[in-house]
Design a protein that fits this description.
The structure is a homodimer.
Chain A: H1 11-18, H2 22-30, H3 38-51, H4 57-64, E1 69-74, H5 80-95, E2 99-104, H6 109-121, E3 126-130, H7 137-152, E4 156-160, E5 168-172, H8 174-187, E6 193-197, H9 203-218, E7 228-230, H10 235-248, E8 254-257, H11 260-272, E9 280-282, E10 299-301, H12 304-316, E11 325-328, E12 331-333
Parallel strand pairs in A: 1-2, 1-3, 3-4, 4-5, 5-11, 6-7, 6-8, 8-9
Antiparallel strand pairs in A: 10-12
Helix pairs in contact in A: 1-2, 1-3, 2-3, 5-12, 6-7, 8-9, 10-11
The structure holds a DNA duplex.
DNA sequence: CCATGAGCGGAAAGCGCTTTCCCAAACGAG
DNA sequence: CTCGTTTGGGAAAGCGCTTTCCGCTCATGG
């Protein structure tokens, strides 16, 4: 009846308490293909309860040769983009009784590799990586090797929005979304555009910029090179880039920030110059927490939670012969931040 | 030279490749108090590299009797309040080479208990629980038992903002923060207050409400009972509560929403009625992502990242004889959402 | 009434490590 | 030169499970 004085109760304690063998206790309490007579099972279960027994997951993992841990690697858990993806992945994990191990790389590619190695050490069942999108080929190569080693040792991998490695991928249609957005903005009558682009090397940002340019081109418009201001992929980056554009760029009617948090920074910058009603701003992502900023942001809605779900589902499904990819579309949402140009 | 065809390379493979015993390989590659001759160490390390060996963390955990996993239980990772806390905890975890396992309970107390059990099974070194603040005594009791079992089996526990269980706690000064906020708002000339309170049973919300009432009382003011509208602890809850207050409550000059996301919902509600400049709104938390809403929110700044850091540090430090608590203060930040009453 | 096999409990092997214990060699002191 | 003492490699004992294999009991059928 008394709990082990040192450390947790083991299955052996339970077996002894119930007066059965270790094998039987294991079968009764932790499941097995084999049957155990109801009467004995009941006795074991009672013993387990009395001792407050919980199976040692490590030992189970060792014995079974697989774990119920999945790894999730994001760039910055504090960024709502990633926390929404994480929420989706965690929801699916919960439904499958998986434990999720998470790491935030703070955008350092070397950390990413380190975490994958660490998850390989944990013998995680699967890894989902969100947002590894540099064009640093050297880092990408090492990440690829590390992931390949992980897969060879029996793990599964999925990437979010990163087609550059031969593994399952949830592809976010950044380019297409930005193209659609450009078309809509052109339709609203804007002609003189600026773009607040992300830092060089960030592929997500680059795709959105390219898509936007394509969309404008289709409408016979374009973004003059000096109307593209680069900044960090966060609020302050948007703020700074907007100010730079105002001070050194051409006059613009409408600014596309490659994500919502940058757009919010841009609006703050415009407001500080008293221009917040003079220049239209559009973003990308449709971050939930930002749906109430004023003016309400025109943006491309990405189903972030779904993206997280899709990635984990992919990695949990039967492995395919070749890397699969699941494409997820964004949807343009026009709100007050781009009221349109009435005169045209 | 060739990697094991099935599964990952084991330490035994490395030992064989290097021509040493398992014991020596272990000492050379995974550290030990014992020395290994540099020449042999080098040989083992080379073999490990050649085989792309990574120690099986499960096996190490078994053999050593401890893991490098810490568990983090939050209510909703998508909520910026929790994602900031998680970021802080993860930062400290990284510095200590710990792996963090995270779970989002979606505010279901039973899930919380389930996850703790699960972490006990993992033999996690420590658990941090953020935001278990119901007054459901039954659930709290079961959680307490589960945590006690975890501690008896050698794990450490810290709670964030929950003094009701005898474990280490990071106490957030909700009450004091709300009290200070009330004092400042009274100082700004407001007299007729409303409160958008959280759901009944949520202690964080209750503390903030109580503190606010105390602060007003100190200034000879009060919140009439019918000016307290309850709502969920999220944006929509704030929105709905605000509308209810407008429609069924007394006229108010200033509304205190018990957290920032509710405040944002409230502002949206006011705006939908054309009252956004007529009623002042204050929040609590100072969520980073919401710093650019307009009007800029008066709120109580909580150092959320620090709170997460403090909790994990606490749980990693030497265990104390009795539960410790570390108190963290908020700081009132007055912004445009409470411009003050000029006439007074 | 005996051969057959289904059903189920138990002994023991094994998962991949760490660590204790043992032992040989090298070394320093008397 | 002898006798402790280090020093460092290797054998083996676990860590807490799962699972294979073995063997006993009982039901079944020819």
């Amino acid at each position: 009846m008394t709990e082990a004085r040192r450390g947790a109760a083991t299955l052996e304690d339970v077996a002894r308490e119930a007066g059965v063998s270790l094998a039987t206790a294991s079968r009764a309490v932790n499941g097995s293909t084999r049957n155990v007579r109801p009467e004995i099972r009941e006795r074991v279960e009672r013993a387990a309860r009395a001792l407050n027994y919980t199976a040692n997951a490590q030992a189970q993992a060792m014995a079974r040769g697989r774990t119920n841990v999945v790894g999730l690697v994001v760039q910055d858990i504090e960024d709502p983009y990633f926390s929404s993806i994480a929420a989706g992945a965690m929801r699916v994990a919960e439904a499958n009784r998986l434990i999720v191990s998470i790491a935030s790389t703070q955008r350092r590619p070397d950390k990413e590799i380190e975490y994958v190695a660490s998850l390989r050490g944990l013998r995680a069942a699967a890894i989902v990586i969100a947002g590894s999108r540099t064009d640093d080929r050297e880092a990408l190569g090492r990440l690829g090797e590390e992931l390949a080693a992980f897969e060879r040792s029996g793990g599964r991998v999925a990437l979010i929005s990163q087609r550059r490695l031969p593994v399952d991928t949830v592809v976010v249609a950044n380019r297409a979304g930005a193209r659609d957005l450009a078309a809509r903005l052109a339709g609203l009558g804007y002609r003189r555009f600026g773009v607040l682009a992300g830092p060089p090397g960030l592929l997500t940002a680059a795709d959105r910029l390219d898509g936007f340019a394509e969309g404008l081109a289709a409408a016979g418009l374009s973004v003059p090179p000096d109307a593209v201001a680069r900044g960090d992929f966060n609020r302050d980056g948007g703020h700074a880039a907007m100010l730079r554009l105002l001070d050194h760029g051409p006059r613009v009617e409408c600014v596309f920030a490659v994500n919502d948090v940058m757009a919010v920074g841009a609006i703050a910058a415009l407001r500080s110059r008293g221009l917040d009603r003079g220049v239209a701003v559009a973003g990308f992502d449709d971050i939930v927490t930002l749906r109430d900023v004023t003016p309400a942001l025109t943006t491309v809605r990405l189903p972030l939670v779904e993206i997280g779900e899709a990635a984990l589902r992919m990695v949990l499904s039967e492995p395919a012969a070749r890397p699969r990819s699941r494409r997820i579309q964004g949807e343009v949402v026009v709100r007050e931040s781009t009221p349109g140009v009435p005169s045209r």
